[in-house]
Design brief:
Elements lengths: L7 H4 L6 H34 L1 H14 L13 H10 L3 H30 L9 H33 L3 H24 L4 H26 L12 H26 L1 H8 L2 H21 L2 H14 L3 H28 L1 H9 L7 H16 L1 H9 L3 H55 L3 H13 L1 H15 L4 H23 L2 H24 L1
Helix pairs in contact: 2-3, 2-7, 2-11, 2-21, 3-6, 3-11, 4-5, 4-6, 5-6, 5-9, 6-7, 6-8, 7-8, 9-17, 10-11, 10-17, 11-13, 11-15, 12-13, 12-16, 13-15, 13-16, 13-18, 13-19, 13-20, 15-17, 16-17, 19-20
């Protein structure tokens, strides 16, 4: 199809100001992450106190069930941004609308199927929730949350169009406002004496209303958007499927690896034990979100370098991306691991001491995942997505088997090790060597260049954190001060001694360049 010409305001102008676009999208993304983290930090102990461990654990168990419904999109959800960006670059409005309409039709059917599954789960809840007194509540929660999750499938088209036009900032701002409003309704509902079902109904209503804003923004970003049954094309389904099938395998594997734990704990121990697991899981999720934003930006660069047959550039992306990913996650992970006990005691109380070791293990899982994220991005973007998909699937199956085996012997710690071991083995012994081979490096050379400079400063950092941890009181402010001191120490040692002068100057120049771009964005706003 011949690309259709269109006015600049129809297609946006992100390509004319790439650094400003990156600064705008990244800064609002981190703002959204920070606000979500603060809200979660404040709401968790409040909700736990108002609802009690059993009710809160039941809420988290039903929420964990919903995370598996994304696998129903069969990988099409991971294809939206890629195909929208592709047809936008070609200025092909009809092609973009055919892709969007086809996906909207697929996701509308998927949403209906999803709610049928919610109904089946709700009326067979006894298989997942042991306590008969909690089964009616769990059933109501599933029926309410199911509305939001099922509507989310077709509505995801609008968010994908916004992201495909490089307006991540719009979705980020909507997410920030939605999170803040949901938090306010949450607090007001519990203070007014709402029970768990009423609370979830109120917060879900706010989230559903947010969908309207995403739709309005999609038509604002792309005024020519048209979703019509006549634009649904079978040829577009085949085009989408060639990419989405492997994305679906990766997505299913990730769900098994990182979201099945609460379900296993609820089935084999109790809903109260789910609460003990939720505390360290929240810490790990925040760490993951804070440190893994780089690799979404690297994917198009990897694809471009591979297509242009530029092995030197691909090798540089792998080395520098791995190093920067590790620099972002290692100091925070080390600080959280060293400060896990005072942090949990100050946050939710000493009666959650059983969550400390679990938190340290899950933090290690995140450190490995983020540290190896550039390798997985390279494999996905440089033609080895099939190997990545099947490796992730193997790790997921091993995770399930080990978790089921070890939770009976070692409880929550066994569950955590059941997650850690497959992730570590797959990342270190399968995906990392495969990425090294892809860029023409030996494992030893890649480790020496990209990994070792980020690891040894931990020893100096620990020498600062441990004495402060033991000297200061068990308060959130003292944990924050100690973590900040350790992170600053790590950063100073890394820049001063772990990298050479040319690399240090390059990092500083890029940091100043991005800071100037962010100031221009703020001034324009």
């Amino acid at each position: 199809m011949t690309p259709a010409a269109g006015p600049r305001d129809l297609w946006g102008d992100a390509e004319h100001r790439p650094l400003v676009t990156v600064a705008r999208n990244v800064s609002t993304r981190y703002l959204a992450i920070a606000i979500d983290a603060i809200i979660g930090l404040l709401l968790l102990p409040f909700n736990l106190r108002e609802l009690g461990p059993s009710a809160y654990g039941l809420w988290m168990l039903t929420a964990a069930l919903t995370t598996y419904f994304s696998i129903l999109d069969l990988g099409f959800g991971g294809s939206i941004v890629r195909f929208v960006a592709h047809y936008r670059a070609r200025r092909d409005a009809r092609g973009l609308n055919e892709i969007a309409s086809t996906l909207f039709g697929i996701f509308s059917i998927t949403g209906c199927v999803a709610y049928v599954v919610f109904l089946l789960l709700a009326f067979n809840i006894a298989y997942l929730v042991k306590d008969p007194a909690e089964q009616a509540t769990a059933r109501s929660l599933l029926l309410i949350i199911g509305v939001y999750v099922s509507l989310g499938f077709p509505v995801s088209i609008f968010g994908g169009i916004i992201n495909g036009f490089q307006r991540y900032d719009l979705n980020n701002v909507v997410g920030i406002c939605s999170s803040a409003l949901v938090a306010l309704v949450n607090v007001a509902a519990l203070l007014a004496g709402f029970n768990l079902v009423q609370l979830v109904a109120a917060t879900t209503a706010i989230r559903v209303l947010t969908y309207v804003v995403y739709r309005l923004n999609a038509y604002h970003v792309f005024p020519a958007l048209s979703l019509r049954p006549s634009l649904c094309q079978w040829s577009r389904v085949r085009e989408l499927t060639g990419f989405s099938v492997y994305i679906s395998i990766i997505d299913w594997s990730n769900k098994l690896n990182y979201s099945i734990d609460a379900i296993i704990i609820g089935a084999y121990i109790s809903t109260a034990a789910v609460t003990l697991w939720t505390i360290p899981q929240r810490l790990a999720e925040v760490l993951q979100r804070l440190t893994n934003q780089l690799n979404g930006v690297l994917l198009p660069m990897v694809v471009d370098s591979d297509a242009a047959q530029k092995p030197e550039r691909l090798r540089a992306i792998f080395i520098q991306g791995t190093r920067l990913s590790l620099v972002s996650v290692v100091p925070l992970a080390a600080a959280l691991a060293l400060l896990a006990r005072p942090l949990i005691h100050a946050w939710v109380g000493p009666h959650f001491d059983g969550s400390v070791v679990v938190a340290q293990i899950l933090i290690g899982v995140v450190a490995i995942r983020v540290g190896n994220a550039t390798a997985t991005t390279l494999l996905k973007g440089a033609g080895q997505h099939r190997m990545l998909a099947f490796s992730n699937a193997g790790a997921a199956l091993a995770n399930v088997a080990l978790s089921l085996w070890w939770i009976r012997r070692f409880g929550l710690v066994g569950q955590a090790f059941g997650t850690l071991l497959p992730v570590a083995v797959t990342s270190i012994f399968v995906l990392w060597p495969a990425a090294c081979r892809r860029v023409g490096l030996t494992v030893a050379d890649a480790f020496r260049t990209a990994v070792w400079p980020t690891l040894w400063p931990i020893a100096v950092m620990a020498a600062v954190v441990v004495p402060l941890r033991d000297a200061l009181p068990t308060r959130l402010w003292s944990v924050a001060i100690t973590a900040a001191a350790g992170a600053l120490c790590y950063g100073g040692i890394f820049l001063a001694f772990a990298v050479n002068r040319d690399e240090r100057q390059a990092y500083m120049a890029k940091a100043f360049e991005l800071a100037r771009a962010r100031r221009r964005v703020a001034a324009a706003a």
